[in-house]
Description:
Elements lengths: L1 H6 L2 H5 L1 E5 L5 H6 L1 H17 L6 E4 L14 H11 L3 E5 L10 H14 L2 E3 L4 E2 L4 H34 L11 E3 L5 E3 L3 H17 L2 H10 L3 E5 L9 E5 L2 H9 L7 E3 L2 E5 L5 E5 L7 E3 L9 H14 L23 E3 L7 E7 L2 E8 L1 H6 L5 E4 H16 L3 H43 L5 H48 L1 H6 L5 H11 L2 E6 L3 E7 L5 E7 L4 H5 L3 H10 L5 H10 L12 H10 L5 H7 L5 H8 L3 H9 L5 E3 L6 E3 L8 H11 L10 H6 L19 H4 L17
Parallel strand pairs: 1-2, 1-3, 3-4, 14-18
Antiparallel strand pairs: 4-5, 6-7, 8-9, 10-13, 11-12, 15-16, 16-17, 18-19, 19-20, 21-22
The structure holds zinc ion (ZN).
Amino acid sequence: MSDDATKVTPARLRRDAYLYIRQSTLYQVIHNTESTARQYDLKGRAVALGWPEDKIHVIDIDQGRSGASAADRAGFQQLVAEVSLGRAGIVLGLECSRLARDSADWQQLVKICAHADTLICDEDGLYDPAIFNDRVLLGMKGQLSEFELHFLRARMRGGILAKARRGELALALPVGLVRDGQGQVTLDPDAGVRDAVRLLFSTFTATGSAFGVVRAFREQQLTFPARHHRGPRSGELFFQPLTHDRVLTILHNPAYAGAYAYGRAAHATGLDGHHHTTARPIPEWTVLIKDHHPGYLTWAQYEANLAVLAANAAARGDDRAAGPPREGTALLQGLVVCGRCGRRMTIRYHIRHGTQIPSYVCQNDGIRTAQPICQHLAGDIIDAAVSDLILAALTPAAIEVTLAVSDELTAQAERADQLRQAQVQRAEQAADAARRRYLAVDAANRLVADALEADWNTALRALAAAREDYRKATAAATALNAQQRDKIRALAADLPALWNDPATPVRERKRLIRLLITDVTLTRNHDCMTAAVRFPGGRHHVLRLPLPQTAWQLRKTPSQITGLIGQLLHSHTYAQIAGELNAAGHTSSDGHPWDGDRVAKLASYHHMPSHDQRLQDRGLLTLSQIAADLDAHPSSIKRWHRLGLITGEQADDRGIFRYHPGQARPARADTENARKRLGDDHRSGRRNPHRKSGRPRTPRQNVRPPGNTETTSPEATGTPSQPPYFPATTRGAV
Ligand SMILES: [Zn+2]
């Protein structure tokens, strides 16, 4: 102690004492209280050495932390900080190497303590790191501590591994599997739990995606069992809504396939001092014992499920293989393979006339190497041809498929119903047990009786809720079933009708097509497309399809129509030609009836001379020309034309006329006679009412001349060969 007395100098006593307490695991904190008590005893040691109690600081915030690294231990860092700042006169710890488990941390602390003139104290003694002997001793203690940790770990790990290799290390079991009295793994004796797990796997098989499983459970209002792993309710069962990560965990867990697996993940400590866990591929697992215990699926099914999950993760790998059916209209989504380079093809959508048109594109190499895409095919033509092929191929098998679908739906509904019933039964049992506990207790024991009565009430409320859930779910299920059955009958009667029914979701169609087709290899040739459809079992069928018409081809008017218009322009205006074409049953290239505007545009596009141009070429005169020739006012020309004394032809849809050349000026007597004969009164400017009955009015053409809203001009509607009736207004000629 005399040695100690020299070490405890007044300078050190003026500074504070730091007592560092730690336990490496929470288990130790709870159960190894002896060690904690010993560590606190060191406080008495510090008092004995001369430090007043109020200057002794206890650092115990690292309790329950593993000591393998200082990174996560705020308490240790605080200790180092205090020492560095020269505030610590002494640092106390049980087996002082426990101060730090890592030798590097320890050596650093010893060095800092030496510089800061701080003592280190443990149960065995008091050390001054500034003294060479003490420093060596402390260094050795640190190294021994590290050895101890290493051997302890190696021994533990060796024991664990040996046990795991025999398949005897008791690993935590997922819900649905339990250990019996002998420690053997068996299926959960609770039928409700077993059914729920089985339903999860069968739903995954049916939907092909973890998300689909979650949705199916949610739609049917089904919950999934889980067990408390620790705490006072450890081992107790409870039900909760199924989540996506839960489904993934279950699908990845080999225990459900009856396999015993150990070391499925690699653990490593990063440079930041944090632990990282990464999943290992199956061949790298430390221990894998197949057929170790009864399971819910075979190893082959387990591997198949993992393959489906891997394929669904569209971002994984460069070959985006068939993903789960999605909502887009491309029927062969995920099934198309490029006939040129053998890669999976992707889908692009574009909108034509308001509908989504898919096209299949091979752009894999194009994206990677920034080159033009490999090939690009019109999806609608291919989809239609493959649909036809399937419907043709399906006729004999249609009933079988339908029945299988029907059976599957019924079985699924029954399974769901059983699960819901089991939930009600469980609630009934719980309520019954609570009732019996209440009845068994002595009524005089008020406190216990009250608590048990409250339990009973809670159980009864849970039972009422479970019954209500069951009632709602079955009501929903029966309503659905009636509809489903009708749908199935329709399906059995006529699969093609259902297939073509727009109400059938695209996703269902895709799911069906995936049952019937393995893949489709598409190739675009210079004159056609080929689609090689491969069926399960290796049979295949090659479809030869026409290339889609280009937008220009689609819009192009057939040449015979163009030719007809060219001929008709000799004797007809645009509106008149439109009337002729419509009467003959022709429509324009985009399916609309013809009108003067469309004919005019087409004629202009093909550089056809207009009707007016043709009349001019034939030497017919404009109104002003003939007026000059005959030395008359234009209004006289119009009157003579109306009276049939000179001849002309309608030049356009605005009612403008051209007049034949070489006509003589009518004599005044002829004009008077004609006017009397036709009852024309040029002064009133109105038609004689007798004319109406004497001459039937020419039927109006239901066509408007282009660019002119004023269409009531009688000249525009009359035929040029007959002199028109009296006009309401007079129009000037060109
Ligand atoms: Zn390609």
